[in-house]
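Figure 2 data, in text form.
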Amino acid sequence: MAPPGRSPFGRRLRVLAFMAPWIVGFTAFFAYPLLATGYFSFTSYDLLGEPAWVGLRNYAYLFAGDPVVRIAAANTVWLVVVLTVLRVVFALGVASVIARLRRGVGLVRTLCYLPALAPPVAATLAFVFLFNPGTGPVNGFLRVLGVDGPLWFNDPAWAKPALTLLTLWGCGELMIILLAALLDVPAELHEAAALDGAGAWRRFRHITIPSIAPVLLFGVVNSVIFSLQYFTQAVVAGAVASGQAEVVGSSKVLGFPDNSTLTFPAWLYQQGFHYYNMGYASAMAVLLFAFSLGFTIWLIRRMRIGVEEAA
């Protein structure tokens, strides 16, 4: 007979006791909110009265009745495509340059990482000031070169590219991760390929990329999720660039200019916490979650197939 506390049942109790904090946190902060959001998406709920069951009415309005959500979805898709590609390529390029430095590596690495520590609101305020069309130093520098700078955050055509520059400036975390992966690539492989006559581009394509493929996959998935959740920078930039003394997130400045910075999460926030349409906001949240999960799974499978074919 097993001593008390050493039986299979006792071991299971100990395991559950150690896992209890995680189980409580997962249930309270993920499982319950997820299930509650799914339930509220089928109701009409304004946070004051009892939720009233409306079936699929919120989803019908989301897909066929709300003209603004299409603009917000289009802006988010634009950010997903452009930000994902540029963020990964830019971080990989900076990491590749740092990996080849022979002096001052620590200083350059620190300077490139520091912007990632800036709070998103403060960084956005600073960027709107730097890219101010009339008084900002960026357009002032362009005028010295004889170039008329764009209106940046005040121009619907340039607002999202300006947000993209802001995101690239703060991608130090991804750069550090890719730099660690680059430094782990065996130098012997590059030396052997160089002896065989392979140039820098062929070594980068056939040795470096396959060696860091799992980390690149992480970077792509991380960038896709980051873009799908793009909220703070877009809302703050629109509010500050509008020049109006309105509360950030107000319907008068949200998406300024001309809804060009209105993202899907920002419109979800507007519906839930300004219009108190919690049922409709929950339906938007369920759609965003389902799209994020499905797109991430599809992307991981496609990239794994590509890596296996390349190997």
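Caption note: The mean pLDDT is 89.
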